[in-house]
Automatic annotation (TrEMBL):
Parts forming coiled coils: none
Molecular function, one GO term: nucleic acid binding
Originating species: Actinia tenebrosa
Top-level taxonomy: Eukaryota, Metazoa, Cnidaria, Anthozoa, Hexacorallia
UniProt xrefs under Pfam families: Integrase_H2C2, rve
Origin superkingdom: Eukaryota
Compositional bias annotation for Basic and acidic residues: 369-378
Protein name per Swiss-Prot or TrEMBL: Uncharacterized protein K02A2.6-like
Region of interest: Disordered: 307-378
One GO term (biological process): DNA integration
Residue ranges occupied by any Integrase catalytic domain in the UniProt entry: 74-225
Name of the gene: LOC116290817
Amino acid sequence: MWGTRVIVPKKLQDRVLQTLHEGHIGVVKMKGLARGHVWWPNIDKDIERVGRQCEGCQELARNPSSAPLHRWEFPAQPWQQVHIDFAGPFQGRMLLVCVDVHTKWPEIVVMKNTTAEGTVEALRSNFARLGLPEQIVSDNEPQFTSAEFRKFTEGNGIRHVTGAPYHQATNGLAERLVQSFKHAVKADKSNRTLEHKIHRFLLVYRTAPHATTGISPAQLLFQRNPRTRLDLLKPSVKNTVDGKNLQDENRPFSVFREGDRVWIRNYRDGPKWVHGTVLEQVGPVLYKGQTQEKVWRRHFEQLRRDQFQLSPRQEPPASTDAVNLRAPSTADPTLDVSQPVDAPRPQQSQAAEGLKTTPSGRVIRTPARFKDFDCSGR
């Protein structure tokens, strides 16, 4: 005995090995079973030998270990190498799947039939939108090895490459897309049609970053992502610009009248601003102003009111100018009754002498309710 395990003599080892292999449970399980009961030198090697010599086990053995990974040469341009395959049936219909190796852009076509002629027509429709690839990779389905398909590829200068029979890994890119689509269809429990499910799947697949490239297929193929409902969560650039323009249009600005005394922006030698008078308004925001030298055209932003020349009665009224319409009041000691009512400029010039301004230059005006009273304090 060796612990709980029996040390089997050499002449009985073959019988013990046959007993361990009775259930054809495989080499790994045979070793596990032996470790709990028996032992002799090199028992693991003997168990492996019995497994290899069993004809029944060899007939049902799994595929050998995967060969070293052989990658396709990565194409330099989009839609240069395309993998195609059939998938289905889905709801009684077959699908033709196409995947671009460079961008991972998928195409799924619902087939009316899977004949060579139908396959060629489906590919011709795809190639009309995205162009002719240089190489097509497929398995050995009869549609892809037919004379009709060979005529189509040779006539369009497309190289057709097929993998080993029953070796799906050769066309693994298309196979993975098929698996992703199968999962999406099974997970979608809605009553949508097959076409609706395909379109939803393609939109998400094309706009989502791919695990291999880190970039969405649409971004690689078209240098932009198609608009999706997720874009509704982000502010629209156009709406933002339109809102800013509307805000700028509605921004209040000074309105100048003919005869207003203003400061005019000077772009010649001398002071930055010079005195002038508004002659006329020649546009929505454009004015002509008279300076001591000549007439200048200026934008309203290039004009400033001459605050020391203003009078409250020069400001544009909010309603009917009751000041000019009312009769002269004898209670107003500053009003010259000899002046006409409709000619207030001399009166305004006299009143302007007593105006006060704040340090910032804003004119301090007497409230309208005190317009008939002398508030000078004298």
